[in-house]
Design goal:
The complex is a heterodimer of chains A (116) and B (115).
Chain A (H helix, E strand, L loop, with lengths): L3 E4 L2 E4 L5 E7 L6 E7 L5 E8 L5 E2 L8 E7 L2 E6 L8 E9 L2 E7 L3 E5 L1
Parallel strand pairs in A: 2-11
Antiparallel strand pairs in A: 1-3, 3-8, 4-5, 4-9, 5-6, 7-8, 9-10, 9-11
Chain B lengths: L2 E3 L4 E5 L4 E3 L2 E3 L4 E8 L5 E7 L5 E3 L5 E5 L4 E6 L8 E9 L8 E2 L3 E6 L1
Parallel strand pairs in B: 2-12
Antiparallel strand pairs in B: 1-4, 3-9, 5-6, 5-10, 7-8, 8-9, 10-11, 10-12
The chains are: A mainly beta (116), B mainly beta (115).
Amino acid sequence: GAVVSQHPSRVICKSGTSVKIECRSLDFQATTMFWYRQFPKQSLMLMATSNEGSKATYEQGVEKDKFLINHASLTLSTLTVTSAHPEDSSFYICSAKIPGIGETQYFGPGTRLLVL
Amino acid sequence: AQSVTQLDSQVPVFEEAPVELRCNYSSSVSVYLFWYVQYPNQGLQLLLKYLSGSTLVKGINGFEAEFNKSQTSFHLRKPSVHISDTAEYFCAVILGSGGSYIPTFGRGTSLIVHP
C-alpha cells in the first residue's frame, strides 16, 4: 500500500523559533498533499492543501505567513511553523493522494510539536 | 456541504464482545465513505472504504461496515473485539462527484476494550 512518512515524529522547541516538518510519499508520487492539525481528543482540522509546483491553498482562519508550506517535489511537502508559540503546540498530520485515484488519502504518522 | 456525525464519543466494551460504532452523514449528492483508525500518537490508518457496489464493505482487522443510503449511515462493526482494537476511530465522507476529494471527518469515537 501507499506509505507516507513524516519527520520528525516529535519536536520540542523554544517560543519564537521556527520548526520544519517534512512529509514524504515513499512509494508513489503525490501531486497533492494535505496538512492537518489535531488537538487532543478532537478530530482532524484541515489546514491547507499543498500542490506540487504551486502555492498552497489555505483553509479559512489559517495564517499562511505563520504556516509556510512548500511542495517542491512530487514526493516531499514541508510545513514550517514560523515563530512558534505555545498555542501552536499540537499534533500535525500530513496525507497524500495517489494521482488518478482521487478518493483515498494516505496519512503520515504525525508530528507532535511542543513549544515551550 | 457534507457533514459527518459520530454519535458516540466513547464506546467501552469487553474483550470478545461485538461492537458497533455509529456514523451518519448528510449530503445531497453521492458520497464516498471511509473509516480510519488512529492509535495513540500515530497517524490515521485506513480500515475500509465504500465507493460503490456492494453496500457491505469488509476491511482490515476483521472490521466491516454497511452503507445504508436511506438512513445515510455507515456504521462500523466487529463481531469480536480484542484489546488491541482500543483506539480512536474516525468516519469520513468525500463528495462523490466533482470537488477536490477533501474528506470531512467526524469527531471520532474512542473504542475502549476491557479485559
